[in-house]
User: Fold this.
Amino acid sequence: MSQVDYLVFDIETVGDGDLIQRIRYPDCDLSPMEAIARFQAELLEQTGREVLPPTFTLPVSVAIGKVTSDFQLVDVTVLDAPKFRPEEITRRFWQGWTHYNRPCFVTFNGRGYDLPVLELAAFRYGISLPGWFNVESRTYEQSRNRYNIERHIDLCDLFANFGATRIHGGLNLMANLIDKPGKSGVDGSEVQQMYWDGQLDEINDYCRCDVLDTYFVFLRSRVLLGRLTMDEEQELIHVTRMMLEERSDDHPAYRHYLRYWEQREEHIRSRNAREDEVVRVEDVSH
Assistant:
């Protein structure tokens, strides 16, 4: 197997209710669940969204796609299954980055959310990361430098020209632009309740699907940059689809993703058939 040069990853988080209670509501007698619910209600009223800031969250799912130097996806794994403990997830994430010789991270808005969560978790648990926090190196060589795409390709940054514009619609939009499933049955806003309901496997399945979308958006970005041709991209997509089909018996996430992918393709075929019919009618009328 070729060397793993890229780690495409996504995370899901839940609120740290104890921390929220201590920082936000120190004078209130609130349980962790009550503190989270109160904070979310305030955020919803103020911003229209109840997504907690990364500073008040813990990682409960990290899915990672291992991608070779020739852009082939060889595996998607979730960390610390089946226990999914935040400390162990964090430790394994950074150990894996070191184990694979510090490959390039690939995310969608990971600079604004995913990596800050995992950096703060490393701080919380006392995990040393000198290779990532190499702040004494020259600016352009620092791993956390926004423009150092040898260490981290944030696809949201790439398409938004590093903040010059906004990608309204996020990863779901970008996946749909290239006819991939995008959001398919679960939304990130549901993760907190799913966690309380004990649906950890379902959270990790959702996270795997986001990694697959991110991978396919990454491939098309390589076409945009001239690193791949469209034919090469389509061959990689074909190989990945066969891998998902072969492993679908063991991974409900893959069956779910493939089902929505097929529905997307059926929608495209139906749309094209309608457009062809309109063209034929116009040709006859003329």
Notes: DSSP finds ten helices and five strands in the chain. The CA atoms of residues 191 and 281 lie 48 Å apart.
